[in-house]
Amino acid sequence: xxxxxxxxxxxxxxxxxxxxxxxxxxxxxxxxxxxxxxxxxxxxxxxxxxxxxxxxxxxxxxxxxxxxxxxxxxxxxxxxxxxxxxxxxxxxxxxxxxxxxxxxxxxxxxxxxxxxxxxxxxxxxxxxxxxxxxxxxxxxxxxxxxxxxxxxxxxxxxxxxxxxxxxxxxxxxxxxxxxxxxxxxxxxxxxxxxxxxxxxxxxxxxxxxxxxxxxxxxxxxxxxxxxxxxxxxxxxxxxxxxxxxxxxxxxxx
Length: 253
Known about the structure:
Low-confidence stretches: 1-21
CATH class of the domain at 9-38 and 70-207: Alpha Beta
CATH architecture of the domain at 9-38 and 70-207: 3-Layer(aba) Sandwich
CATH superfamily of the domain at 9-38 and 70-207: Alkaline Phosphatase, subunit A
Radius of gyration: 19 Å
Largest sheet: 4 strands, mixed
Mean pLDDT: 84
């Protein structure tokens, strides 16, 4: 997988309403599964001195498993999210790559491709580029929750469609992601999850919050001395588009 200079924060949120549980201990009201592309387990300790808020809370209060991993070789994002969510290797969960060749169709297919589930959330979306979790062959954590407790709510929110969709599963109440194909800045979804997009998503899209970052660009957050644990800014082999070093300029779509 081609390394990217920027880290893509892939957020998958799984919301749970009260579920019937065994014993006296009450089940949690909220469970969050957070996946960060290219973030290794040792980063929690390696960069612990500069973490604030969320990651600092995890490093201080959470149980950390330093040798927990899945032994599958090909670590593209589609296969990775499906493996984390299902606990099954790509050969069993059906997501062996981001794209693969389908013998029956005689063409390449995308891991979340579903032409029957049209995209919604932006007027210029292509009807042929539908998305769903139909290619998953095994159930996910979210699917198990919905089976055990149908009143539970399972949602995925991510930058990429495959992160949001494959991390939640077939029974998810919703999956939302940024419209990167059209660079609209909108959060979109597909009709697999409903015929209309929720008003809170429409409200976010109308706010145009993403646009506020264009002028400022991507700047380093800390002083140079903070980055002594990181590799050099310009690294051989990285694909940086217009530049491979800070600051990075943003362009409106």
